[in-house]
Write a structure and sequence with these properties.
alpha+beta; four-stranded mixed sheet; three-stranded mixed sheet; 9 helices
Length: 382
């Protein structure tokens, strides 16, 4: 089934490594667009709505998102309850009523579901792109990166209230974090539940803000983060660092940091998966007579016997001389060497004479392709 699925990030219109807030915003937008109540009788919209919900159920769960980022669909088996295929209202709608309570003001889920936000909440997920040398991607490395991010204020311990003071219950919502309004409509009385503007839905206000953080409970700071880069990473590989994102709220866990890898090209090697590819120039005499040539690998130089009569563009495989990856097990690729025939460009008179003599001596009988081509031309013009 996985081969027929679209990438979950693609479904929500996001890039890999998107933050929790970006995922939630994208889900709100897509869910509003395809919700059945807005597209009555539209089967295509219904299927897209299910697809959007399935993507959100995975990407909104930190553990499932981490497994999906590392292993793709294989890491989130739907049959084990990972994606929730129960249709509308099924068990897979993690956070569904909460989000749609905010979106539609209580139209779904029986009278609204806007949450009071003074409970523990996870901090914001962050992402950082870094570029590393080809060799570090192949062999792994330990890196220290600098990051400007919010950290929890030590003075107020994240509360936002000045030391020696505490938060107060919001007088507008009496600590509920919600404000209810009632409207008379042709269909009767309609009750709407929204977040309290005075306390931003937390149910509490800060009367005397902390001087250091200005009442935010956090402040921006440059921090250093250590990253272990495993051997075998490639372009667009994502390394997740738990708890290195933004600070949690009200005792909630800190967010995660996603390191997005970019690899600098190598001067000699090209890469595809764990395999390496290399072009080596050889002379006419080496190709015709055969020779032992020196082939560079990522770790050493090895000898390889080029057989006599080797044709230009011939590719040889050196087994086990590619990249050894320690991502999802240990796998080692191969090195593919393609020989390129180099033709001399500057010859002395003596050298030119020697080439002419050799050409006369060889004739067409030594060149199987040339002879075959010449015979074909004769047949065409008989």
């Amino acid at each position: 089934m996985a081969e027929n699925k679209r990438d979950y990030y693609e479904v929500l219109g996001l890039q890999k490594g998107a933050s929790e807030d970006e995922i939630k915003k994208a889900f709100r937008k897509m869910a509003m667009k395809y919700h059945p109540d807005r597209n009555p009788g539209d089967k295509e919209a219904e299927e897209k709505f299910k697809e959007v919900n399935e993507a959100y159920s995975i990407l909104s769960d930190p553990d499932k998102k981490d497994k999906y980022d590392r292993f793709g669909f294989a890491g989130v088996d739907p049959s084990a309850g990972g994606a929730g295929f129960g249709g509308f209202g099924g068990a897979g709608f993690g956070g569904f009523e909460d989000i749609f309570g905010d979106l539609f003001g209580g139209m779904f889920g029986g009278g609204g579901s806007t949450r009071r936000r003074n409970g523990p909440m996870k901090g914001k997920d962050l992402q950082k792109a870094i570029e590393i040398p080809f060799e570090e991607a192949a062999f792994g490395a330990k890196k220290t990166i600098k990051l400007n991010k919010y950290v929890k204020c030590e003075d107020c311990r994240g509360s936002g209230a000045a030391p020696g003071t505490s938060k107060k219950t919001c007088p507008h919502c009496n600590g509920t974090g919600q404000v209810k309004t009632t409207q008379r409509t042709p269909f009767g009385m309609f009750q709407n539940v929204t977040s309290c503007d005075n306390c931003k839905g937390t149910g509490e206000i800060v009367e005397k803000p902390c001087p250091k953080c200005g009442g935010l409970g956090k402040y921006k700071k440059e921090v250093k983060v250590s990253v272990d880069i495993p051997a075998g990473v490639d372009n667009d590989s994502v390394i997740s660092l738990r708890g290195q994102g933004g600070p949690g709220v009200n005792g909630g866990p800190d967010g995660d940091l996603y390191i997005i890898i970019s690899v600098k090209p190598h001067k000699l090697f090209k890469r595809s998966g764990n395999d390496l590819y290399l072009d080596i120039p050889i002379s006419f005499s080496q190709a015709a007579l055969g020779d032992d040539i020196e082939v560079p690998t990522l770790t050493e130089r090895v000898k390889y016997k080029v057989p006599a009569g080797t044709q230009p563009g011939t590719t040889f495989r050196l087994k086990g001389k590619g990249i050894t990856s320690h991502i999802r097990g240990t796998r080692t690729g191969d090195l593919y060497v393609t020989v390129k025939l180099e033709v001399p460009t500057k010859l002395t008179a003596k050298q030119k004479k020697a080439v002419e003599n050799m050409s006369k001596e060889l004739g067409n009988e030594c060149y199987s392709q040339k002879k075959s081509f010449a015979d074909t031309i004769k047949d065409l013009f008989k």
